[in-house]
Amino acid sequence: MFGIQGRLTLLFVVIVTLVLGISGTYAQYSLGHELEVSSQRLRQGVLTRLQTSLPSALWDLDKAKVDNIVAAEMMPPELVSIRVYDTSVGLFSGKLRNENGSVSAIENDAAVGGTPVVADLAYRDSGAAGASLKPVIVGRVVVNFSRAQIDATLAAEVRRKVTEVLLLDLILVAALALSLRIVFDPLKQLRDGLFDLATRGSDEVEELPDNRHDELGEVIRGFNAIQRKVKSNIQRIREAEDEARKSAQTTTKALDDLRRTQESLLQAERLASLGGLVAGVAHEINTPVGIALTSASVLMEATEKVQLAVQDGNIKKSDITRYLETAAESTRLIMNNAYRAAHLIHSFKQIAVDQVSEARRRFELRDYINEVVSSLQPKLKKTRITVSIACPPDVMLDSYPGALAQVITNLTLNCVEHAFDPEDEGRIMIGVAQQGDWIEMQVTDNGKGIPPDMLDKVFDPFVTTRRGQGGTGLGLNIVFNLIAKQFGGSITVSSVLGQGASFVLRMPCVTPVDDATLHADARLHA
Predict the structure, then answer these.
(1) Reported pTM
(2) 10, 125, 151, 412: most buried by Cβ count inside 10 Å?
């Protein structure tokens, strides 16, 4: 496996090679195109000159002149041979380039290498009386061109480019090897120092030399500072361990005191919640009782008037009709408000008994949630918040209803107090789903949400955003402890700022019984 240094070197070499390869390919293509164009111009020029100068000499059968013209055109190295044919004689003259580059006459019509180009030689006698006659074909010329010069030039260019790429790659590798050592040598020292710090005792690890005055020197000095801090922390931990061993009995007593204090705070919070419930229900009962008393008073006055009319013998049918209407309306008001008061008392009675006794029993979840929410109506009616419940029927729990009421109450009131401003409209949703032997309860609001920096601390004790306004910071901590310890379940929270929060509770339908729970029940009953 390559290290970072090897991968960086390979990456740079590949990039440079690729760039130079693309550039070289384009240059090779351009050079080939230019050579082809130049060769085409050369062919066209040679043929044009031969077609211009050879016909008259061939017409006069002047071999010396033909030989001179052909020899003159054989100067470019791309020409392999020029052969001039007379229409009646055959091969009249010709020149051939030998392998050593010299030019000699062609004695016979043997095969010649290269690419042949054939052109007719037409003669026109400009001084004759019949100058307007068509030209006379007096012969033809065959010119053989070679691509060896083009191929050699392209091959040389390829070799030059390959050599250039290899040299640049070698220079780049050497330069990177030297420059990367400036970075990776100190990093290797840091790696070795970290490995020693992790595998050996901190007292045995020496600090790294920090005589550099660049960014890596700052990193090394930071490592040395961390190492000194680790040594200092280890020393303090050792001293704390020694102190803890010396004061083990004192610590045990402090832990017992802390546990008792926590239990007292929990009991005080529950009693405070119950006291608020009592005050709210008492205030709520006043309204239906007052209406019932007023209706009864009206009914009593109407009855006394009818009795007096009967005694005087002045009773009329209209008096009886009016009395019956009054009696019916008063009776309806008395019955409705008495039923309302009875319902509040029933809900309060069940919740209050559960809160005080902490007894375990079997109960139906949906009805119990409705009772808990009904008991919170005195507080909810002062807000513009609605609570909706979505729980399937016949979900039975064998658990502690009082603790569950405390959980639902704390979560609901936490939403009321923290998720909404006093005049805001809002909604709290309590949803329940049964999953085998477990239930999942979700308490969700559409309020302000929880800030990200508070999300991990909402279940910590004494964490509140309403300190000095009556908030103790124990509500959600009590919920967490009840769910985790008493119900054997779990609770999580998620929130998006400005879009509300969601608390998800998972607990078994049958709460497990352990020794800690039995001792807790015994202490509560005591």
Answers:
(1) 0.39
(2) 412
